[in-house]
Amino acid sequence: MSDSLEEIPTMLLVEDEEAIAKPLVKLMDLFGFETSWAKDGVDALEWLSKEAAPSCILIDIMMPRMNGWQFREAQLKDIKISSIPVVFFSADNQSAREAEKRGENFVPKPIDLDQLNSTIRNTINKVQERQTRK
After folding, report:
1. Would you say 36 and 47 are in contact if contact means Cβ atoms under 8 Å apart?
2. N or C end of the chain, less CB within 10 A?
3. What is the C-alpha separation between 64 and 20, in angstroms, rounded?
């Protein structure tokens, strides 16, 4: 038994379709994340204003009220949440090109589970490495 408890990574999933969100929450739990769910970018910003920062945000791009890109713009303007790493996902090919152009982490739908897990972990690790160097 270890002397120290390992911190469980946390995830904020932002997805407007419940039929996609519920299985993704369960999947993130299987990947070892404690996962919360917001229905769109507006709800995600509200959640982030009240809760401890998650290890990562997994966000759909195509959503009503506030889409993934609009959320990211608002997130980057708020110093309290701007450093939280984000992984985008979408079935839209244009979104994939836009994510690449912006230098953002992206996983296409339908989601390859191994790719999703490795993209999230690599994204979190990169941020942690940058913070360690500071």
Report:
1. yes
2. N
3. 15
Domain that holds residue 23: 10-133
**CATH code of 99's domain:** 3.40.50.2300
Determine, yes or no, domain membership for 104: yes
End-to-end CA distance of the chain: give it in Å, rounded.
32
What total of structural domains would you count in the chain?
1
pLDDT at 7: 82
Whether 51 shows a pLDDT value over 80: the answer reads yes
Asked if 13 and 88 count as a contact pair (C-beta separation under 8 A), the reply is no
Q: Is residue 5 part of a domain?
A: no
User: Is residue 4, in this structure, part of any structural domain at all?
Assistant: no
Dihedral sign, CA of 47, 43, 101, 23? positive
Q: Is residue 1 pLDDT above 70, yes or no?
A: no
